[in-house]
């Protein structure tokens, strides 16, 4: 019953436009699904268990959560085709639509959900407006992060069709390079903000 509700939740999220249909993994796949945004993280059964969210609460969240308008999604897709700054724009959109979700969860649940979101996003978490403000990233650091993301986006395009191992190594290298932009103090603060590490894989 719970798995059925979860599949329904993912279907509704796709309709709302919060997860690209191609990013939903086929049944039985062992890899982590490339979910994006805090809503995507919430669709993972292990995360729901961690937050003590049952099927009825999940249904309530989906029914009341405000969907991202079609014109906003289109603008993001257009930006993605032209420049890597779309990652920043996308994070800003996700942050805006977290407000409704925050009202549906307890303070503890929402805080933990944000922690899990940052853990799951790895290096991309550094583009979250909340983290940018909390860590007090400088303009120079933000520019460097965008440059790194752009460089690795180009590498990904050139390495299409490579093995999963090669793509994993590339993702790990991107994360390391992004985190190197932080000062020692910012790095330690980020580790604390992420909270207790969580194992996403089943």
List the helices and strands and how they pair.
Elements: H1 2-16, H2 37-42, H3 45-50, H4 55-64, H5 70-82, H6 86-96, H7 98-104, H8 107-121, H9 129-134, H10 139-158, H11 164-179, H12 184-193
Helix pairs in contact: 1-4, 5-6, 10-11
Which key phrases capture this entry?
single chain, 202 residues, mainly alpha, 0% strand, disordered N terminus
Number of helices: 12
Q: What composes the largest sheet?
A: none
- Compute the average pLDDT: 75
Number of DSSP strand runs: 0
Structure characterization notes:
The protein is an all-alpha fold and 202 residues long. The protein has one domain. Helix content is 67%, strand content 0%. The protein has twelve helices and no strands. Helix 10 runs antiparallel to helix 11.
């Amino acid at each position: 019953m719970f798995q059925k509700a979860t599949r329904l939740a993912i279907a509704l999220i796709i309709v709302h436009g919060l997860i690209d249909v191609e990013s939903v993994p086929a049944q039985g796949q062992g890899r982590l699904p490339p979910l994006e945004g805090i809503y995507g993280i919430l669709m993972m059964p292990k995360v729901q268990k961690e937050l003590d969210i049952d099927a009825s609460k999940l249904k309530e969240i989906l029914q009341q959560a405000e969907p991202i308008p079609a014109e906003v999604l289109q603008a993001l897709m257009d930006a993605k085709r032209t420049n890597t700054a779309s990652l920043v724009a996308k994070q800003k959109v996700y942050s805006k639509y977290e407000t409704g979700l925050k009202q549906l969860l307890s303070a503890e649940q929402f805080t933990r959900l944000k922690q899990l979101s940052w853990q799951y996003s790895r290096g991309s978490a550094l583009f979250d407006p909340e983290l940018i403000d909390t860590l007090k990233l400088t303009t120079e650091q933000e520019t460097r992060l965008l440059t790194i993301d752009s460089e690795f986006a180009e590498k990904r395009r050139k390495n299409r069709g490579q093995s999963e191992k090669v793509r994993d190594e590339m993702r790990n290298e991107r994360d390391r390079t992004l985190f190197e932009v932080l000062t020692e103090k910012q790095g330690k603060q980020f580790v604390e903000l992420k909270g207790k590490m969580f194992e996403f894989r089943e």
